[in-house]
């Protein structure tokens, strides 16, 4: 099996390290970054665990897809870039199709925050005759990039990959199942395929619309939101999100918890993690606020629902990133 990870950030390196550590074939995993010098090279990706142990594996690092021309095709491609880089990532995937590195047997899995990323990728590559299938994924893993190809594990969580019912292509389905097995760590940290990905995407969006902006605004780690002073905001934001989800006729998968209890459980599981939105603010980068809270605010406007806390989160972060 050959696996490609488009995006060498925290989650991308987490996936690369977990999979490469279980692949007997050298350089079965490739990490594709933004095109720079137009070359490829060998590297070692590392994942620092909470007990100070390190998971590592040999990978190939490439500045884009074109330098990989002539190599064997990829079976699975994970897309882990920020929303603003999705079009560029899709163009790299398109280059991979042209170079015969990807085809209809390849599964492309978007593990990105926010809504609409799969649509963007499909818009770019959909015109190709042998275009790969693009699948929506969700992950609750917490990780923080320490340096290139070195990421730190900051929170346990499950990963889900949405597969399509009725597909007659058993090869990419088999590839998804195989890579999911490679990502098994424990009962609390594993990967599975599901036919019902939409409720999971919305449930992750619930957590993102609360944890990301509130940690960015308050400059706090995820676990700090469990403090009493933040709980009224957490609760109100959750209730507002639930209103929008109900209007959209979406069933949230909360495992018997209330929305607030669910978000608090994510905060607890990823307590030492710095949210991606806080990192973006601190690094003066564009955030994913439009694809997260902006998406919910626009839906609320369509349904004529007042969601003042979610709207405030959206407006404040928009101001902070200017």
UniProtKB/TrEMBL annotation:
Ordered alphabetically, the record's keywords are: NADP, Oxidoreductase
Write down the Gene3D superfamilies for this protein, in alphabetical order: N-(1-d-carboxylethyl)-l-norvaline Dehydrogenase, domain 2, NAD(P)-binding Rossmann-like Domain
Domain Ketopantoate reductase N-terminal, residue spans? 3-163
InterPro entries xrefs? 6-PGluconate_DH-like_C_sf (IPR008927), 6PGD_dom2 (IPR013328), ApbA (IPR003710), Ketopantoate_reductase (IPR050838), KPA_reductase (IPR013752), KPR_N (IPR013332), NAD(P)-bd_dom_sf (IPR036291)
Q: Which GO terms describe its biological process?
A: pantothenate biosynthetic process
Task: Give the UniProt entry's GO cellular component terms.
Answer: cytoplasm
Ketopantoate reductase C-terminal domain residues: 198-321
Q: Which GO terms describe its molecular function?
A: 2-dehydropantoate 2-reductase activity; NADP binding
Question: What EC identifiers does the entry list?
Answer: 1.1.1.169
According to its UniProt record, which protein family does this protein belong to? Belongs to the ketopantoate reductase family.
From the Swiss-Prot or TrEMBL record, give the protein name.
2-dehydropantoate 2-reductase
């Amino acid at each position: 099996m050959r696996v490609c990870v488009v995006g060498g950030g925290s989650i991308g390196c987490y996936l690369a390290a977990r999979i490469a550590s279980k692949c007997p074939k050298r350089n079965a995993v490739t990490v594709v970054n933004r095109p720079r010098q137009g070359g490829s090279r060998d590297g070692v990706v590392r994942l620092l665990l909470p007990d100070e142990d390190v998971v590592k594996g040999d990978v190939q690092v490439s500045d884009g897809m074109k330098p990989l021309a002539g190599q064997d095709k990829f079976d699975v491609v994970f897309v882990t870039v920020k929303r603003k880089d999705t079009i560029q990532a899709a163009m790299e995937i398109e280059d991979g199709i042209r170079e015969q590195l990807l085809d209809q047997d390849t599964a492309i899995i978007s593990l990105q925050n926010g809504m609409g990323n799969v649509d963007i990728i499909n818009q770019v590559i959909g015109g190709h005759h042998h275009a790969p299938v693009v699948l929506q994924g969700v992950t609750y893993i917490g990780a923080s990039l320490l340096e290139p190809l070195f990421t730190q594990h900051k929170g346990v969580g499950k990963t889900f990959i949405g597969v399509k019912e009725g597909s007659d292509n058993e090869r990419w389905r088999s590839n998804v199942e195989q890579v999911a097995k490679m990502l098994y760590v424990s009962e609390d940290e594993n990967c599975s395929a599901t036919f019902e990905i939409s409720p999971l995407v919305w449930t992750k969006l619930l957590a993102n619309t609360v944890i990301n902006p509130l940690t960015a605004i308050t400059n706090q780690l995820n676990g700090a939101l469990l403090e009493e002073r933040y709980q009224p905001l957490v609760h109100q934001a959750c209730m507002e999100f639930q209103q929008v989800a109900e209007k959209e006729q979406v069933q949230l998968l909360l495992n018997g918890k209330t929305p607030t209890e669910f978000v608090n459980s994510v905060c607890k599981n990823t307590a030492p993690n710095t949210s991606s939105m806080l990192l973006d603010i601190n690094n003066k980068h564009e955030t994913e606020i439009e694809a997260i809270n902006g998406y919910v605010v626009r839906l609320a406007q369509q349904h004529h629902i007042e969601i003042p806390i979610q709207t405030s989160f959206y407006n404040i972060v928009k101001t902070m990133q200017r």
